[in-house]
Amino acid sequence: MVMKMKDLRRFLAEQIQEAENDLHTSRRGFTLVEVIIVVVILSIAAMMAIPMMSSAGSVQIRSAADAIAADLEYAKSMAISHQQNYGVVFDTIADSYKVVEYNDVTYKDDIQGHPVKRGFPYTINFRSDSRLNKVDLVTANFDGGSANKIYFDYLGSPLGNGGNITLQADG
After folding, report:
1. Whether residue 48 has pLDDT greater than 90
2. 91 and 123 in contact (C-beta within 8 Å)?
3. 3-state SS assignment for residue 135
4. Is 156 part of any domain?
5. Which residues partner with 89 through β-bridges?
6. What's the structural domain count of the chain?
7. How buried is 125 (Cβ within 10 angstroms: 0-12 exposed, 13-18 middle, 19+ buried)?
8. Which residues of 51-79 are buried (b: 16+ CB within 10 A; e: fewer)?
9. CA 165 to CA 171: how far, in whole Å?
10. pLDDT bracket for residue 130 (50, 70, 90)
11. Dihedral over Cα of 124, 128, 131, 133: its sign
12. Is the residue at 46 inside a domain?
């Protein structure tokens, strides 16, 4: 009976040794199929992420155009409600614009206070606004290209012959 126990121990030791050898030899690496699947998944993720990163400038241009349109509408509604000439003056050098009231007494523009940020002038500066800092205000031509401002009369009609504003993505 003692002899059989030694044989059993030797048999179990050999089995354990074979199992350990199998465990170490089976960890060679990844199969080609596994590597291809990972590469395909990473490629799909990259194709989805790259267009979103590169379009930050175009998203900012759309946002800036929407803001300008809203502020032009605001100046128009202020002109109607106050029965006074209101307008928007553009500064292409500083990439900014401001909403103004035309003062008939001094013949100058009075910058309006911001309707939301109380105590601040209604001036929008693309460079200092992190949401719009990739936007360049290239041109703002009104009344045949001679002015960088547009006014609305007490009926909300633009004074002059209209014009255009050109925005561009910076870098």
Report:
1. no
2. no
3. strand
4. yes
5. 98, 149
6. 1
7. middle
8. eeeeeebeebbeebeebbeebbebbbebb
9. 19
10. confident
11. positive
12. no
What are the structure tokens assigned to 114, written together?
Answer: 């911001």
pTM as predicted: 0.67
How many angstroms separate the CA atoms of 141 and 162, rounded? 8
Q: Cα(160)–Cα(142) distance, rounded to whole angstroms?
A: 7
Determine the Cα–Cα distance for residues 99 and 89; give it in Å rounded to an integer: 7
Q: Residue 156 carries which DSSP code? A: S
Tokens of 93: 């050098």
Kindly report the CATH number assigned to the domain that includes residue 124: 3.55.40.10
The Cα–Cα gap between 141 and 153 comes to 19
Q: Among the listed ranges 10-19, 25-34, 136-145, which one has the minimum average pLDDT value?
A: 25-34
Burial, 2: exposed, middle or buried (Cβ in 10 Å; 0-12, 13-18, 19+)? Answer: exposed
19/46: higher pLDDT: 46
Instruction: Please indicate, yes or no, if residue 80 is contained in any of the structural domains.
Output: yes
Instruction: Return the CA Rg of the chain.
Output: 35
